[in-house]
Amino acid sequence: MQDTLTLQLVGKQLLSQSGSSKEAFQLTFERTSGEDFNYRCGDSAAFWPENDPGMVEKILVHWGIDGRQVLNGVALRELLQKQYCVTHLTEHFLEVIRGQLGGQDGDVFDRYRAEDALQTASLCDVIDLFPSVKLTAEALLPLLKKMKPRLYSIASATALRADRMDLAIVVVRYENFRKQERHGVASHYLCHRLSMRQPIPAFIAHSKFKLPVDSSKDIIMVGPGTGIAPFRAFLQERAVLRARGEIVGRNWLFFGEQYRASNFYYREEFEHWQASDDLVYLDLAFSRDQDYKIYVQDRMRERGEELWHWLRNGAYFYVCGEAAHMAKDVERALLEIIHRYGGMDIPENFLQQLKEENRYQRDVY
Ligand SMILES: Cc1cc2nc3c(=O)[nH]c(=O)nc-3n(C[C@H](O)[C@H](O)[C@H](O)COP(=O)(O)OP(=O)(O)OC[C@H]3O[C@@H](n4cnc5c(N)ncnc54)[C@H](O)[C@@H]3O)c2cc1C
Ligand SMILES: NC(=O)c1ccc[n+]([C@@H]2O[C@H](COP(=O)([O-])OP(=O)(O)OC[C@H]3O[C@@H](n4cnc5c(N)ncnc54)[C@H](OP(=O)(O)O)[C@@H]3O)[C@@H](O)[C@H]2O)c1
């Protein structure tokens, strides 16, 4: 059971600089009640986004749906705006509309289907391509997926400031199968449509991705892109503990992004922590500053011997960010390092031991 909080946006700062191919923002939220937060470092904030109002309007107008009509106590416009997903379609929806298409339209549909293109179609694509399809609101809604909450790793620590919560969000952009530019529903909503002080429901998604209970342990953090978010929180928390006189282990961060000039998020903070020894090593991998790719796992390999010494001495190893490629490649590099410098024939066994001791933690998406 999650407790719903009402948050309001109180700060918005562009983390990426001009020249970046993507927009990354730091968003800062407070509770509308004025109360403090009680999340822990490693937790995420979850939000229900709202669909693009232009898309919702197009759906209402095309199918002649009165947005003011109430269904189960909620106006149809609001249902389409907040409670249903209009950007990804279900198999059931596709079957129903195929049943309405004949002749040339049916052939076009089948061709798109064979190319898997409709898997990435939105309701507006269907309206544009097959305007003859007719649906009432009562028929449409049960064919749609419910809107899912989106999670964002919290990038700040309550030990430093308990009344505010920072997030680091990249605005997802992609080209659909019609070669039209589209954006992610939640990342665009939060970064571009949510107004300052506008109340927004959210909840804290508690995570097992946690700092060592024993703060004297060393930590190694690998966080390219927005994967940096929880590690900023970790570093804030450990800097506060250290300033209070507690024994805090060493911190080592691997960060990667496209360009040093435009994507070195939180540069000043990291350099400040380096100067104060709160960050012992900062290894950077800017993938597009040269004509070949350099990724965080390349930096790990370069620092393999030292990394092995940290692990052998009990360090915790954390990975956060993209799941499909980065997290797998980082694990491969870690296994190579254990094999090469730890002299282990079956490095998977050592990795398993790290997992069992909670010393290998991943928060990947
Ligand atoms: C634990 C956790 C922590 C996270 N932390 C962060 C964080 O700190 N910062 C951050 O930025 N993100 C974070 N994320 C990711 C975040 O939750 C969202 O998944 C992300 O912002 C994309 O959501 P969206 O609604 O903007 O995109 P969506 O609209 O959900 O789109 C998602 C993806 O589907 C693809 N897609 C969607 N529709 C189509 C289409 N019609 N055609 C082709 N492709 C399509 C897009 O390529 C896109 O990548 C985290 C995720 C998890 C699980
Ligand atoms: N659909 C989209 O258009 C889109 C756009 C942005 C983000 N996203 C999603 O949003 C999440 C986070 O994105 P993000 O912008 O924070 O960061 P990201 O896309 O993960 O990029 C961060 C850095 O990681 C590099 N990288 C790419 N592949 C890698 C690999 N196999 N191993 C190590 N590093 C690798 C990138 O390099 P290069 O970019 O130079 O390869 C970049 O320098 C991911 O889930 C991503 O899939 C989707």
What do these coordinates show?
The protein is an alpha/beta fold. It has 3 domains: 4-49 and 149-205, Translation factors (Elongation Factor Tu (Ef-tu), domain 3, Beta Barrel), CATH 2.40.30; 53-143, NADPH-cytochrome p450 Reductase, Chain A, domain 3 (Up-down Bundle); 219-364, Rossmann fold (3-Layer(aba) Sandwich), CATH 3.40.50. Helices cover 37% and strands 21% of the residues. It has helices at residues 53-62, 76-83, 91-100, 103-114, 123-129, 137-140, 185-193, 229-243, 260-263, 267-275, 296-302, 304-312, 323-342, 347-356; strands at residues 4-14, 24-31, 44-47, 70-71, 74-75, 150-153, 165-170, 173-175, 181-183, 199-205, 219-222, 251-257, 281-286, 316-321, 360-364. It has a 6-stranded antiparallel beta sheet, with helices on one face. β8 (173-175) and β9 (181-183) form a beta hairpin. It starts with a strand and ends with a strand. Bound molecules: flavin-adenine dinucleotide (FAD) and NADP nicotinamide-adenine-dinucleotide phosphate. Flavin-adenine dinucleotide binds at residues 44, 49, 87-88, 120, 122, 150-153, 168-170, 172, 174, 176, 182, 184-187, 226, 229, 363, 365.
Structural class: alpha/beta
> Judging by the overall fold, what is the CATH architecture of the largest domain?
3-Layer(aba) Sandwich
Mean pLDDT: 97
Identify low-pLDDT runs. Answer: none
Strand content: 15-25%
Strand runs, count:
15
User: How does the major sheet shape up?
Assistant: 6 strands, antiparallel
The CATH first-level class of the largest domain comes to Alpha Beta
Fraction of residues in helices?
25-40%
Tell me the number of helical segments per DSSP (H or I, 4 or more residues long).
14
What is the molecular shape?
globular
Rg over CA atoms: 24 Å
Strand order of the largest sheet: 6-3-10-1-2-7
Elements, N to C (H/E): EEEHEEHHHHHEEEEHEEHEHHEHHEHHE
What is the CATH homology-level superfamily of the largest domain? Nucleotide-binding domain of ferredoxin-NADP reductase (FNR) module
Assembly category: single chain
N-to-C terminal Cα separation, in Å?
22 Å
Ligand catalogue? flavin-adenine dinucleotide, NADP nicotinamide-adenine-dinucleotide phosphate
Counted up, domains total 3
Q: Provide the CATH topology of the largest domain.
A: Rossmann fold
